């Protein structure tokens, strides 16, 4: 089995901690979304699809360890809307 972290090494540089700032913001929005929390029939694939789709609906915001963020151009309301849209898309087209 391959060490996942080793996949993030390029030319001797560890890129593991370069992250899309929206990842945590989408997770928080999903946790706060009442519709998602109420759904008993969401399986792991559906949750991953909602997460990935919401991230794809947002502009990428990559940062690295130690980055100073002076402002956040993607508002919370935009993140919440992306999560709602992703939820509706996944529920209309669930994987079989």
What is the number of domains?
Answer: 1
Poorly predicted tracts of residues = none
Beta fraction: 5-15%
Strand line-up across the major sheet: 1-2
What's the overall geometry?
Answer: globular
Number of helices: 4
For the termini, the CA-CA separation is: 28 Å
> Order of helices and strands, N to C?
EEEHHHEH
Radius of gyration: 16 Å
Q: Which percent range fits the helix content?
A: 40-55%
Determine the structural class based on helices, strands and strand pairing. Answer: mainly alpha
Task: Give the biggest beta sheet.
Answer: 2 strands, antiparallel
Beta strands, count: 4
Q: Please, what is the average pLDDT?
A: 89
Question: Which keywords apply here?
Answer:
two-stranded antiparallel sheet, single chain, 4 helices, 96 residues, 49% helix, mainly alpha
